[in-house]
Amino acid sequence: MRSIIKIATAVCVLGVGTTVQAASPLYTITGLGNFGGASAASGINNLGQVVGQADVDAGNYHAFLWTQAGGMKDLGVLPGDTSSTAISINDTGQVVGVSQPQGGNPPRGFMWQAEIGMSDIAGTSGLYTQPIVITNSGQIAGYASPDGFLQSNFGFTYSSQGGISPVSLSGVTTYGVEALNDSGEMVVDAPQSATSLFVASGQNPVEIAGGGLTEATASAMNASGTVVGSASSNLGGNSHAFVWSQSTGLLDITPIPGGDAFAQAVNGNGDVVGFEILGPGESESFLYRDGTTYDLTSLLGNSAAGWSALAPEGINDSGQIVGSGFFNGQVEAFIMSPAASATAFVPEPASLALLALGAAALLLRRRR
To answer: From edge to edge, which strands make up the β-sheet containing 249-252?
Structure first.
């Protein structure tokens, strides 16, 4: 099951050896602000609206919604809770995430809507939920449990008309739903698969497998059914970033062999963003497009001044990228937007760049 891990920081030196650099700046970067402490973005919709979390005081953080017109808005918490994180936003502006009570009790899944605010999606069912995604039709999917413990997890979908429904697939036991698209295709966490992942449309699950990778975690799926995430090469081995579709199978897109790489998001064009941890104090972030991997910092040109340790978490169909990074020493959520004059990527030969960076990431990782 994926759990929310707070922002972690470390100073590092980054070696970029297998990514390519752009001939001219292709992106600009903007900080999204904060509530007085650190902030991190986790998702973006096709209107450029951004969600994530931001510290409000020592030890507590709140979900936020950022818009170009209104800036960063505090979405609050469910009654009696102290912290919250927004995870996903659809194109109608509906937001899902988790609200955390004090004292280590299990979190509760929420949906936020501008008209009614934040509500517990479990209602009176007594279930603990961790929503992962909300589609444009308002369908929610993720993990649920009657007691908040991993051993009793099951996958669920939710709609305002039908409430919470357990996911049941022919011949497949589900621990949770890790991704869902507008066509109703979903990625389920299931113990029967070598990678622990199946893609299902109706009652026809297809195993995500290949390349000797096991113990996989899906991060996202686009409308075409392309899935991205991370998987190990063997039990306890390094994590590899992957892209999967029924036509291509599983492709390893790890930028630099030997590190732990995570593909975090994919848009409707098949563009993938993620990052790789190369060792203690060493990391890089990347954009994967049409078979080529780009170092994100190199795409910013002079607009990167003051920024380091970019950790991308989302990308929309316009190519806008969101995540977190250091800005002048403070961890802050960001949005990267394609430069107005940029029409295409122009790769140069790969080179080695030494950059003094920090590692800052809000990860949505599954606990096994």
So the answer is: 214-221, 227-232, 239-245, 249-252
Tokens found for residue 58: 């020592």
CA 249/CA 209 separation, integer angstroms: 8
Range of weakest confidence among 43-57, 77-91, 97-111? 97-111
Q: What single-letter amino acid sits at 172? A: V
3-state class (DSSP) for residue 298: helix
Answer yes or no: are the C-beta atoms of 208 and 217 closer than 8 Å. Answer: no
Residue 82 · residue 100 · CB < 8 Å: yes
Distance in angstroms (rounded) separating the CA atoms of residues 35 and 23: 37
Q: Dig out the tokens for 337 from the structure.
A: 């937007």
Question: What distance separates the 2 farthest-apart alpha carbons in the chain?
Answer: 58
**Rounded to whole angstroms, how far apart are CA atoms 119 and 117?**
7
- Residue 103 near residue 117 (C-beta atoms within 8 A): no
- Could you report the per-residue pLDDT of 17-65, keeping only the tens digit for each? 344 443 434 899 999 999 999 999 999 999 999 999 999 998 899 999 9
Per the DSSP assignment, residues forming a β-bridge with 323 are 312, 334
Token pair 């698969």 in the structure block, residue: 193
Which of 89-93, 247-251, 323-327, 364-368 has the least mean pLDDT?
364-368
Reduced to 3 states (helix: H, G, I; strand: E, B; else coil), residue 64 is strand
Domain 2-366 in CATH 3.40.50.1000? The answer is no
Report d(CA 360, CA 10) in Å as an integer: 7
pTM, two decimals, is 0.85
Contacts of 305 (CB under 8 A, 6+ apart): none
List the domain boundaries for the chain.
Answer: 2-366
CA distance 211 to 196: 14
Contact in structure between 285 and 299 (CB atoms under 8 Å): no
The tokens 């170009």 sit on which residue?
68
CB-count exposure of residue 96 (10 Å: 0-12, 13-18, 19+): buried
Amino acid identity of residue 208, one-letter, is I
State the CB neighbour count (10 A cutoff) for residue 132. 30
CB burial of 314-349 (b: ≥16 within 10 Å; e: otherwise) equals bbbeebbbbbbbbbeeebbbbbbbebeebeeeeeee
**What does the block give as tokens for 248?**
């291509």
